[in-house]
Prior knowledge:
By secondary structure, the protein is an alpha/beta fold. 26% of the residues lie in helices and 26% in strands.
Amino acid sequence: MLADRVIARGTVVVKDGVIDFVGEGDLDMGEGVEIVDAGGRYVAPGFIDMHVHGGGGHDFMDGTVEAFVGVAALHARYGTTAMLPTTLTSSPERLYRILDIYAQAKAANVEGAQFLGLHLEGPYLAKAQKGAQDIRYIRIPDRKEYTEILRRCPDVRRWSAAPELDGALEFGRYLSSRGILVSFAHTDALYDQTLAGFANGYTLATHFYSCMNGVTRKGLHRYAGAVECSYLVPEIDVEIIADGMHLSEPLLRLVHQIKGAARTALVTDAMRAAGMPEGESVLGAIDEGLRVVVESGVAVLPDRSAFAGSVATADRLVRTMVNAGIPLVEAVQMMTATPARIIGAGGSKGSLAAGKDADIVLFDEKIQIGLTMIGGRVVYDNF
């Protein structure tokens, strides 16, 4: 599967962990070459999840190598070949523990989705839009704190915050000057405040629609919000949790129609219950996280008043978009090339092309994963 079309019968040659050739028809590879016959399945670039918290009974907030490796292994089974481990709002002490263990976890992660850097979600969020984030630790941007975090952990690749907070615009400018992706999230910003955020480095809408304002009425007047700003500014990218629960099918189609596949990334935003049986679970750190219930394919608060996280895997996202009427090639693009571009990894990931990393997935017409390859090495085989 190429960026713009499906080749009915094609060949991908992998050498030393890198794609060496992509083309139509069969090649005479000679002897001593391992050949994988896709058996009529689609061959596509590996899925890239740039917003994921957990899976397989683990959460990155557990702060252990075992948790990091466990999450990566679980999602590789469902086609994810690269990800941004994502934190939740927490105490500074717990966040520093995550930062300190990341390098060790990255080195130990040899069987799961590759870590491409950390995504910090919070703690600089709007309390009124906290969602399932822990309100005890939500605060305004502190320059001393965030500069120390970046000094301590150069692997931060993305940070989500609310642009309307005091100091949030300076925060955005500082991060973007260092090449870090800044996204707006859990925000009460109206249109003008969101636009100011964009002008100061906020270029991505975190879990679009969720925990952000759309049209808001104040007195006699209606005001556009972060949702409308994201639609009206062509350069703003959006990510959506396409699990079929967080956004309905008409909204999925609307996002695709307005923003297009090139500006829309699919993310799982998955918590620890992804890939696990339904029932009680914990959002965030196992020892102090939020108790939730997983039912009907999504995590909810015990009183059923709100969602409390996704349990989706990448294959489900693609399947949901296809079922919503989105062409398969574009659904895959939103899970591969688009997130690769957004996080600055497009030079080596996100498409099947010579010179790029051999991150490859095979799946059938139902988007059921048959094989996952990362860097030319098969890490999951369900043929």
